[in-house]
Amino acid sequence: MNFTELFQKYSQYTDKERTHRYGRIYDQWLPHLENVRTVCALGVSEFGGGCLLSFQKMFPQAKIVGLDMQDNTLIEEVRKRREIEIITGDVYREETLNRVRNRYPSFDLIIDDCIHYPENQARAFHYWGQLLAPGGLYVIEDVLGIDCLSRLLSVHNDGWRIFIGDNRRTHRQ
Question: Is 116 labeled as catalytic in the residue annotation?
Fold first, then answer.
């Protein structure tokens, strides 16, 4: 199965395909990542955990860490899998970052599905981009103000290649 099929399968528990059509974007970009050992999904339990299960099935060798203000996971299979961990905390607080960093010093893939305002997305990148492993990928979903976000990220860009997708166009820095 690919991401599109998995997001459709778990569409009751994730909006990644039914609302945003991210499957085709993830099918294009993510399978090319080699040796994904750790995935951090920020702000993803709102719809029940379908995205976490989809990432675990696409990267079966990886540890999948879901981070959100509260655990709203509805799929029992997510709770039973050792490869998936849900951590509760505020992604915009340094104490949450440090708590996660103590357990997982880096991530090969970080998905930001938090608050969809450019200022919040840039702030999340500032915190969580520190944990991106060399050669890793940081994905920002639901970009509402691509030009504004691009300017904000340039403040935090330490020579990283940034891919921003809003499902209509993409931007690279």
Answer: yes
The domain spanning residue 96 has which CATH number? Answer: 3.40.50.150
Total count of domains within the chain = 1
d(CA 119, CA 92): 11
C-alpha–C-alpha distance, residues 77 and 173, integer Å: 39
pLDDT of residue 102: 96
CA 21, chain centre distance (Å)? 15
Q: Which of 116, 126, 156, 171 does the annotation list as catalytic?
A: 116
pLDDT tens profile 100-120: 999 999 999 998 887 666 777
Distance CA 163, CA 110 (A): 12
Query: Residue 62 is part of which domain span?
Result: 3-172
